[in-house]
Automatic annotation (TrEMBL):
SUPFAM superfamilies, alphabetized: NAD(P)-binding Rossmann-fold domains (SSF51735)
MF terms in GO: GDP-mannose 4,6-dehydratase activity; NADP+ binding
InterPro entries in UniProt: GDP_Man_deHydtase, NAD(P)-bd_dom, NAD(P)-bd_dom_sf
Organism of provenance: Streptomyces klenkii
BP GO terms, sorted: 'de novo' GDP-L-fucose biosynthetic process
Function summary: Catalyzes the conversion of GDP-D-mannose to GDP-4-dehydro-6-deoxy-D-mannose.
Name the record gives this protein: GDP-mannose 4,6-dehydratase
Assigned EC number: 4.2.1.47
Domain of life, source organism: Bacteria
Length: 345
């Protein structure tokens, strides 16, 4: 019988790539969607016709119990979150509720539906439903060592990072308290043509396309010196799946081990369209964050050795892929007007 997976955050970047990957592996896949008439649900339904949907919200305990009970999943991937870091200074309580307490709610739903009522004190994780939590390199925050591995201490620099640290520890705690097979992937930044327009790589690739077509001239950015370890989302969802196929539940760092600055990202993206980034990029101090994560780089040695996972897409290739996709889309929208507007991911 085919395995059943439930994915929260199905309308986001990673949700769609993970669903495609699991369907290709022969899974039946349900995506949790929230709200009435969520336009992002229609978009992902069109992209992935084999996907099924179930209603629910990480803010609503009862809805998660119902969703888990209805789907009876073998694996739950909790990708749902308010994922844009600056939002977490504007709405810290909301972000804590969704990204932190939301993880607890999903673990409680799994515990209730699986009948894992009592604390076992065990640490091997033999619950029936396997659980993946989308932890983040933002938990490392202020860097105490580089590169960062599973042993590096956390020092989050945003309410987002703090909430993710709670989600990380509560997953560990349910593993140790109830034997839930719960793992966290500490994923470093990963991007794609489906990345939200608010994140810096996509903001750049979208602007490059508009500038190339003469529809825009300037691109406002914040801290050009920030350094990230950027990979391709399509590669990273393979690691999520592999983590839930292991005999033992444990957490893994996932990244590429390579560092680039925001300035590099801009240069590579503009070059991909034969443009000079320095003629178009303007630094806007309003976009600099109250507390910045200056530099991140993954030591993903454990994932390589134990999961057999390697990233396949390099940073230059990734930025070019995003620029090409946005150029194609912008060209179609220009030539076909309103009809195609918003049709891009
Ligand atoms: P996106 O921002 O693209 O997607 C976020 C998803 O969360 C959307 O589907 C959104 O659904 C959903 N969501 C928001 N609020 C709720 C809620 N209250 N209940 C249920 N679902 C909700 O994120 P990514 O795909 O990029 O990231 C996936 C996960 O991985 C996130 O948890 C993110 O924090 C984490 N992560 C991401 C990294 C990256 O570089 N991409 C790196 C490390 C971690 P809706 O359409 O309803 O708004
Ligand atoms: P990040 O991604 O905060 O690392 O979180 P983002 O792309 O937003 O920022 C990366 C770096 O670029 C700098 N930057 C800008 N960022 C944005 N968004 N817009 C700008 O104009 C700009 N100029 C400079 C930022 O200051 C930052 O240093 C992402 C999200 O996917 C999280 O959910 C995830 O947990 C982490 O990656 C790992």
């Amino acid at each position: 019988m085919s395995k059943r997976a439930l994915i929260t955050g199905i309308t986001g970047q990673d949700g769609s790539y993970l669903a495609e990957h699991l369907l290709a592996e022969g899974y039946q896949v349900w995506g949790l969607t929230r709200g009435q008439a969520n336009p992002r649900k229609d978009r992902v339904a069109k992209l992935i016709p084999d996907l099924a949907f179930v209603d629910g919200d990480l803010m609503d305990q009862g809805s998660l119990v119902s969703a888990v009970d209805l789907v009876q999943p073998d694996e739950v991937y909790n990708l749902g979150a308010v994922s844009f870091v600056p939002m977490s200074w504007q709405q810290p309580e909301l972000v804590t509720e969704v990204n932190g307490t939301g993880v607890l709610r999903m673990l409680e739903a799994i515990r209730m539906v699986s009948g894992l009522g009592k604390s076992t004190g065990g640490s091997d994780g033999h619950g029936q439903i396997r659980f993946y939590q989308a932890s983040s390199s933002e938990m490392f925050g202020k860097v105490v060592e580089s590169p960062q591995s599973e042993q590096t201490p956390f020092h989050p620099r945003s309410p987002y990072g703090v909430a993710k640290a709670y989600g990380h520890y509560i997953t560990q705690n349910y593993r140790e308290s109830y034997g839930v097979f719960g793992v966290s992937g500490i994923l470093f930044n990963h991007e794609s043509p489906r990345r939200g327009a608010e994140f810096v790589t996509r903001k750049i690739s979208l602007a490059v396309a508009q500038i190339k077509l003469g529809l825009q001239d300037k691109l406002l950015l914040g801290n050009l010196d920030a350094v990230r370890d950027w990979g391709f989302a399509g590669d990273y969802v393979r690691a999520m799946h592999l983590m839930l196929q292991q005999d033992k539940a444990r957490d893994y760092v996932v990244g590429t081990g390579r560092m680039h600055s925001v300035r590099d990202a801009a240069r590579i993206a503009f070059e991909a369209a034969d443009l000079d980034w320095e003629e178009h990029v303007v630094v806007d101090p309003a976009l600099v964050r109250p507390a910045e994560v200056e530099t991140l780089c993954a030591d993903y040695g454990d994932a390589r050795r134990e999961l057999g996972w390697e990233p396949e897409t390099g940073f230059v290739e990734l930025m070019r892929m995003m620029v090409e996709s946005d150029l194609r889309q912008a060209g179609l929208e220009r030539d076909h007007g309103e009809l195609l507007a918003g049709a891009s991911w």
